[in-house]
Design goal:
Blueprint (H helix, E strand, L loop, with lengths): L6 H19 L12 H4 L5 H20 L3 H25 L7 H23 L10 H11 L2 H18 L4 H18 L5 H26 L3 H32 L5 H7 L5 H9 L1 H21 L3 H10 L33 H21 L4 H4 L1 H4 L7 H10 L20 H16 L7 H17 L10 H18 L12 H7 L1
Helix pairs in contact: 3-4, 3-5, 5-6, 5-7, 6-7, 6-8, 6-10, 7-8, 8-9, 9-10, 12-13, 13-14, 13-19, 13-21, 14-19, 15-18, 19-20, 20-21
């Protein structure tokens, strides 16, 4: 009998893994765009390896609890394998866009391991109550950095583990699940760091209520219930301290942004946005307009509306380098027929290079002012590889024979790689186009928006963005409503008669 029967299956497995790695290497970059996170700055870790490593780490953490006996270790390995399989199925069917996102998989694994570590610490401290384990802290972190549905799944798994570690206690599972769901729902509305404090307070009183309910149902003496209530307060307190400590570290390590950070970045008292307000007032006004309509469109299709709004604050920040070369900052220009005065002496090709340069300048400025990469990617992606039509047509009119190729009039890209940057591209285009409509009725605005969206679609600008035709239809309707509200008809007020004319009439 051949003693090396295992070599052939091993060889096939290794070849399959190598083929998978080669396939991953050939895929386009993640929608995160710039290499912001540690994973994309240094290495790209295959998601399957992260998942297997997380499973092994969980096995090592839980092995002391079950005891180093073969049947129990095999049972633990089987349970962890089932949990891993369940997570894979959940990702594939409910969040398919995250299946190949190594960052999300690693963060999910970290949340699970941190939750298990908290459970283990509680079990090792003498006298520590099962009701004091802060599973809600992990739920808050997962909600803010990942997804609320993913946070719910993590909370369920950790609550079951808390019950198992507490000698299969239903009470521990019930309280952990209730407190973590409370934390998750409270964290979904977090906009400031003080909101995390409110989430912790909610966790505390809900945990107290859950303990009281269990006590009444089980017939506990009042003395036992009063003894457990302080542990509920500790649970809520830890649900404040742990997220406040973890979030800055995880945000710095990964390319994830919490609503708290986004609101801080979107504060117009920040030096870069203040410069935009003072040095390029036309661009500043345009920024406010497009950020508003982009935010509403993002809400309509379920995208990240806050990221969309803050990203639009910075999308044209590069115009600070030469604000006078952009039409909205040319105060002397009074009608669309007037030529941009600063481009009169420039060749159309040179003018297009000046316009394109604001993308490069914007990225450099944003990085110099430490703007997060998730926001920076709005700067190049909101233009994609669109053509600068005005100067291309001017070049075509001036000299058709020696006309440079159309590619030289295109922005360098990349194309939008998220729904948010796709909305940014459309919001920027339709807001500019709406200014050229003489009588902006609802029907004219709708036709204009539809034409702009169709033009970008036919140009292939959405080839890399996870956006559907249904999303585009909702965006068209939303943009039309927003623009019609801006360009609404105003009543022409009669002039107040002067005192002389009033005397004459009398």
């Amino acid at each position: 009998m051949n003693n090396r029967w295992w070599l052939e299956p091993l060889r096939r497995t290794l070849l399959s893994l190598l083929a998978w790695v080669d396939a991953q290497r050939g895929k386009p970059e993640s929608a995160r765009g710039e290499k912001a996170s540690f994973l994309y700055r240094e290495i790209h870790v295959p998601t399957i390896l992260i998942a297997i490593s997380a499973a092994v780490a969980l096995f090592v953490l839980l092995a002391p609890e079950v005891g180093f006996v073969s049947p129990r270790l095999l049972t633990l390995a089987g349970m962890i394998a089932m949990v891993l399989f369940f997570f894979i199925l959940y990702f594939r069917y409910d969040l398919p866009e995250l299946v190949n996102d190594d960052e999300v998989v690693l963060l999910t694994s970290l949340c699970l391991m941190l939750g298990v570590i908290l459970i283990e610490i509680g079990s090792f401290i003498p006298g520590f109550s099962e009701f004091g384990v802060p599973i809600g802290a992990i739920a808050i972190v997962a909600t803010l950095l990942l997804h609320i549905r993913l946070a719910l799944l993590i909370s369920v798994v950790l609550s079951l583990m808390a019950g198992v570690v507490s000698r299969y206690s239903f009470n521990a599972t019930f309280v952990a699940l209730l407190s973590s769901m409370t934390a998750m729902l409270a964290a979904h509305r977090v906009r400031q760091r003080s909101d995390i404090t409110r989430a912790g307070i909610h966790v505390a009183w809900v945990t107290v209520l859950a303990i009281y309910g269990l006590g009444v149902y089980s017939g506990w003496p009042a003395k036992i219930m009063l003894h457990e209530f302080p542990w509920a307060a500790l649970n809520g307190f830890l649900c404040i301290i742990i997220p406040l400590g973890l979030l800055p570290i995880l945000e710095a390590f990964f390319s994830r942004l919490t609503p708290i950070t986004l609101l801080e970045v979107g504060d117009f008292n920040r030096p870069l946005l203040r410069r935009l307000m003072l040095e390029a007032p036309g661009t500043y006004h345009h920024t406010l307009m497009v950020s508003s309509i982009a935010e509403q469109a993002a809400d309509a299709i379920g995208a990240n509306s806050l990221l969309c709004r803050v990203g639009m604050y910075y999308h044209d920040i590069g115009k600070l380098a030469n604000p006078e070369y952009f039409i909205e900052n040319q105060i002397g220009r009074r009608s669309p027929e007037d030529k941009p005065e600063h481009h009169d002496k420039l060749n159309p090709s040179i003018s297009s290079l000046v316009i394109m340069n604001h993308v490069k300048e914007g990225i450099a400025l944003a990085r110099a002012y430490h703007v997060p990469e998730e926001v920076i990617r709005f700067i190049p992606e909101h233009h994609g590889t669109s053509i600068i039509k005005y100067f291309f047509m001017r070049a075509l009119e001036e000299d058709e024979e020696s006309l440079p190729p159309p590619e030289s009039f295109r922005y360098p890209g990349p194309k939008p790689r998220s729904r948010e940057t796709a909305i940014a591209m459309l919001a920027d285009s339709v807001e500019a186009a709406s200014r050229s409509i003489e009588e902006p009725t609802y029907e004219r605005l709708h036709d204009m928006v539809e034409k702009v969206v169709n033009s970008k679609f036919m140009d292939g600008q959405f080839d890399e963005a996870p956006i559907t035709m249904r999303d585009l239809r909702k965006i068209i309707e939303n943009f039309t409503h927003s623009l019609s509200a801006v360009h609404h008809v105003r009543i022409e007020y009669p002039e107040t008669p002067s005192s002389e004319s009033m005397t004459e009439t009398q």
